[in-house]
Amino acid sequence: KYTVKLLKKELDKNFKDKFDFLYLPHSKEQDCNLGYGFINFSDSLHILLFKEIYEGKKWKSFNSSKLCA
User: Fold this and answer.
1) 59 to 1, 44, 45, 46, 68: CA distances (angstroms)
2) What average pLDDT does the structure give for the chain?
3) pTM, 2 dp
4) Does residue 55 surpass a pLDDT of 90?
5) Radius of gyration of the chain measured on its C-alpha atoms
6) Which of 15, 26, 41, 55 is the most exposed place for a label (fewest CB within 10 A)?
7) Is pLDDT above 90 for 62?
8) Where is 7: in which H helix or E strand?
């Protein structure tokens, strides 16, 4: 259910100005994202922090059992 705008807001909590590209594919038929996305961090060290914060965790904005991987 995340939109690019909502995902960017979530990521900006820890990574504001730390990435220069964010893509979240969207299905018009189902009116939701496809469950994956792409982030280009400006420094590879941010990838490790992203993994530490998000991997294996539930997304907080929605009541879903899906985990970040």
Assistant:
1) 10, 23, 22, 19, 7
2) 92
3) 0.83
4) yes
5) 12
6) 55
7) no
8) helix 4-15
Mean pLDDT within 36-62: 93
Over residues 1-21, the pLDDT tens digits come to 789 999 999 999 999 999 999
**Token pair for 51:** 């993994």
The pLDDT of residue 14 is 95
Answer for the pair 22, 7: CB distance below 8 angstroms, yes or no. Answer: yes
What would the two tokens of residue 39 be?
């982030």
* Structure tokens given for 55: 């991997």
Print burial letters for 23-62: b (CB count within 10 Å at least 16), e (below 16): ebeeeeeeeebeeeeebebeeeebeeebeeebeeeebeee
Pairing of strands 26-27, 32-33: antiparallel
